[in-house]
Structures are given as structure tokens and as C-alpha cells.
Task: structure prediction
Amino acid sequence: MGKESVAYAPPHPAPLPPNGAERGIPPALETRGLDKSFGALAVTHAVDFRLERGARHALIGPNGAGKTTFVNLVTGALRPSAGAIFLDGADITPLSQDRRVKLGIARTYQINTLFRGLSVLENVCLAIGERLGLGGRLFRPVGLRRDVIEAAYALLERLRLAEDAGRLVRELPYGRQRLVEIAVALGLEPKVLLLDEPAAGVPSAESGIIVDVIETLPADLALLIIEHDMELVFRLARRITVLVQGAILVEGTPAEIAADARVREVYLGERTRH
Amino acid sequence: MSAAATPAAVPEAVRALARRHRFRAYETLPWIAAIGGYFLFPDYLALGAQVFIAILFALATDLILGYGGIITLGQAAFFGAGAYACGLVSAHGWGEPLSLLLIGAAAAALVGFLSGFVVLRATGLTQLMLTLIVAVMLQEAANKANDLTGGANGLQGMEIWPILGLFPFDLYGVAAYLYCLAVLFLGWLVLRTLVHSPFGRSLTGIRESEARMNAIGSPVFRRRLAAYVISAALAGVAGALAAETTQLVALDALSFDRSGGVVIMLIVGGIGRLYGGFIGVPLYMIAQDRFAEIDPVYWYFWIGLFLLLVVLFARGGMIGLGETLWRRLKFIPLRPWGRRG
Result:
């Protein structure tokens, strides 16, 4: 018996995520010295951040830490005051938002930002159409691109939204709209996906769907998730970055973050005040 | 719910989207009415031609206002640019009507392209003011350029050749009626194609959420500018048509009344519905005519009251009202795909 238990000893703890830099592979997304200030208010300060390929990375921090601003800087919705952003090692800092999307960066919004007067299906069709570069076509009706419509429907089935495909987004409950947020982003087939509090406002009974969706994302997709729900963060993330007052406080594995005294003080202390 | 009727059932939502661009029976109604009008009211053909021109102008405006979500009170700039371009060329010796329409379209498109860079950088009220300013500046320029445009007296000396070299513009407006109807039909076909195209849908997307369009990789400014130029070109065709049929261009082609009037007619008919102009323009013109006859002094008050009622009780204009009543009648819930086409 004793011998057996030795033979079946648990394997070593999983190795840390491969460090791409050591192997000469650029990270999927990288920022160097990223700064953003609105007048005298610095909302992002000297952020050096790396998102490896296939990462499941969470960005946490107290309210007002600058998490959404970071997403806006990376996607190009905001221009940084200083610093640079790299996608697959290429500098994308000067590129416009739509160019960056074409290169593979997609995002969702903390507060639903959808085409509310259009059907769920068409919301996703618009995203797929833009990915395929159809958006500027003037003549052939959308309806004749059956492939686009069916791809959109298949995506909705994956997100268990198929039964709502024909409904207008604004008629859906808020929690279902959160799923449409993700569906639209996935329609872009991104290399880097930034989810801004995907579970915010979702009833706990339905947040399981969101976890399932995230767990079935392609393995090579680099995911950055901003989330306040610590249970969700520790369940999904393999690395966590803590942002406080626009600067990175600490980065590490979930275990390291959970054990970090500074994080407890700054972040978890803030949480208990909720 | 029972199983689907066919084994390989296509989801209803997919079918609905795939069929949305198909022609419906009701879409023939305006054209039946137009042809009927030709036989029923032979004395009003000249007026009918002006109605068609106004509808074409409204269609052009609907593309940017209703689909693109660009707020404009300066659409007359394009109407006037088309009218003056057509008028000037014909006064200088070239009167072939079809090519003059294209000249009008090109001139208006150029104005749209240049002013679009300024207008479309702004949003909301600023944008509204900028559209207005462009039209007012053009009108003032036309007024000042007396030698070229005839200023306040209007452009004189236009000469329009027969259509296709065969049909001269006659005193009864027969040629003008059919000619304007044909051009309106073509313009409607172009616009109908556009609003169902990926480009048109992306415009609707921009109207619904500009931020999200950016986030799915759409070059929002370029799309808006393209829509602005297309709308300007169509408005320019309407302006050129007006110049050809009346053989006169005056400053009112560029007036604020024209810019505001077309928006009001669209609101009455229903914005963003492609058919708003077909209903709003005749209704507004009839209402104007009736009120002016009943109460020659205060008729503008009644027009105002009428508009107030439309805005308060028929948000989607007459078409919106019709849709609501139809749903009430049939107990049909909201149309599942897209509120406004």
C-alpha cells in the first residue's frame, strides 16, 4: 500500500505559464510604460503589462483603479499620453480603433453597448460582416449572405441565445444582453479578447453560462478579463494582475495574489466595504 | 411547442433576415398611385412632378437622417448645388436633361464631400448648426455672385432640350410628370438597395451605437462620409430635376425653408422607413394647401398644431402610427427584426 501511494504521488504542481520572452515569442499583447492622464488626473501610470498567447488573465482592482481605461487604451478608444502598445510584437500605438480590431483585438463593455433596436441575430451579423470586410459593400443585400447569417446563428446556439435570435436586443433581460455582448465580440474571432466585467448585472443562476462560454474559448486566444466577482476570477484566471490607482500593484498566480498582504489590504479591504 | 414542420427546419430568425430585402406587395402602392394620378388628375401633372421631386429629396435626406443618424438642417445646400449646377450649364449652352442630372449630382456630391469633413466631425447640436451654416453660406454666396447666378432675381436663360432628344417639356407637364416619376423610381431603387446592403446596415449600426461600431472594427467616419456624399448626390439630382422642370433656379433652392421642410415632411411620414417621404410629402403639401385655403391668414398656425399632434401622438410618423394600429388590430407583438427597416 505504502509503495503504491508513492507510485501514485500527485504530480508536481503545474508549471507556471510559459514565459514567452524567454523563448523569444512575443506576447499576444504588451504595453510598455503606458500613461494616460486627463489634465492633472493620472488614471493610468507606467503600466508594463504582458498578455501571453492562450492566457487566461484577470485584471482586478478597486473601483476607479483604471481598469476600463486600460481596456480603452488597448483597443484605441483612448489615446495614451505616453507609452506604447504591441500586438504580437508589432507596435500598434498609432493605429485607429478599427485597424486594431482588424488585427484581432476585440472587447466587450462593462455597460451593455449594443445595437438595441436590431435583432440579436443581426447584432452578431454586423460583427461578422465587418470581420469579413463586407461592411462597405453597397449593393448585394445582407440577406443573400446566408453564410454570414448562419455563422451568426451557430454562434448564438453556442451561447444558448438561439431562441432569442429574432428578438430585439432591447427586449431582452439585462443578463441575456450580457451574453449578446460576448457573442458580438466572438463574432470578430479575436486573437485577444478583453472582457470588461462580463458577469456584472447577471443573475447568479445565469452566470454559469458565461463561465461555460469562457472555458470553451479557443486555447490559443489570449483572454483578459476584468471582474469584481472573486469567485469567477479565481475559477477562470491562471494569472492575475492587480491595478491600484492606475498602476500595477502586483502580478502573479491566483495563489500568490490570494496570499499577498498588499492585495488583501488594498483590494480585499475595499471589497468588505461594499 | 411541437417539433418543427420540416425535418431540416431553418430557424425563423435566419429566414426572416435572409428574406428581409425581398420586395413586398405593398411596395407597389406608391407607383400604382402615381400612375393612377396621371390618368385621374390630368390638370395637376405639373404639381405632381414637384411632389415627386420633393419625395426624391426626402428619400435622400432619410438616408443620412433616418439610417445614418446624422442630424441635418442643411440638406438644401445639396439641392441647391444640384439645381445651380444644372441651371448654369444649361444657361451656357448644354441642355441635355439626363447628363444635367449627373452634373447636378456631381456638384452636390462635391459639396457633400467637402462639407462632410467638417460637419461629420461634430455631433448633436454642433452638427446641426454646422449643416445649417453650410447651407446659409452657400445661399449667401449665390446671392452675392450676382453676375453668375442672377442673385435674388434668379438664374435666367436656361434652355432644356427634349428628354432623350424625343420628348420636349410641354406646357401641361406630361413629360415632366413621367420623367420625374422615372427618376424617382430609379432613385428609390438605388436607395432601397443601399439600405439593405451591408453598407446600409452598418449605417443603421452606427445610428444604434457608434461606440459598438467602432469596437467591431467599422471605419465609422468613412462610412458616414460615404453616406453623406451619396445623400448629397441624390439631393443634387432632385435639385437638378427641379431646375429642369421649372427652367428656373432661384435662391429658395438653397433656403432654410427647404432644409427644414424636408425634415418636417419626413417626421410626418416616418423617419428611417424609406417610405416616410412617400407619405409625408403629399400629406404635408395637401395639409399646407387645405389650411391655406381654410384660413389664409393664420394657416401656419394650423400646420404647427398638426405637427405638434404628430410628434406627440404618432412618434414614428404616419407609418409608425399605421404599424401601431395594425399590431393592435391583429394582436401581433413587435416586429421581431428591426424597428425601422
Remarks:
- The interface with chain A takes residues 11-14, 16-22, 193-194, 196-199, 201-202, 204-205, 208-209, 211-220, 222-223, 226, 334, 336-340 of chain B (CB under 8 Å).
- The CA atoms of residues 89 and 298 of chain B lie 41 Å apart.
